[in-house]
Amino acid sequence: MPLEDTAAFTAFIQAACGGKIGFGGYGEHRAVYQRSSVFATADQDFRDIHMGVDLWTEAGSPIFAPLEGYIHSFQDNAGFGNYGPTLLLAHPMGEKTLYSLYGHLALEDLQQYTVGAAIAKGQRIGTIGPYPENGDWPPHLHFQLMWDLLGHVGDFPGVCARKDWPRFAANGPDPNLLLGFPGAGTAD
């Protein structure tokens, strides 16, 4: 299957999910990133380790906040293979702040956000976007956690090079801790 053909890729994902939600794990090594120049670098820097969790389902499916917090930032990270509409929430936890990223949203979701707006746990925060507005991926949510945004606003790498995995894994807790899905990735 040519991965550049998003319609065929979407049909494949939907058939594999069988009408249910598909799951893509934290720390997975993925060849699929070869489909986009967004990840094109020298071999040792090629980003193919997934740093979040993907939930593959139908476009328009609602997304809810797992924790209370506030809107840190948002933007449309347009381009083939990118996130498309992206939301970052901040979740203060005592002296630290945990950040959560929601990628591949519907473009219209960006119109409802205001930086600094409070978000309640369980509040609907968006919907899964259709391709091509979601970065031209089969419809899914990329959900990721970070302790430090490393200066990023409205975006954060969702995939890293194998050599960078230990550093990013230390900064990004496994989202399964919040979602309750089995098994954490190890990037072996």
TrEMBL record:
UniProt xrefs under SUPFAM superfamilies: Duplicated hybrid motif
Protein name: Peptidase M23
Boundaries of every M23ase beta-sheet core domain copy: 49-147
GO molecular function, one term: metalloendopeptidase activity
Xref: InterPro entries: Cell_wall_metabolism_enzyme, Dup_hybrid_motif, M23ase_b-sheet_dom
One Pfam family, short name: Peptidase_M23
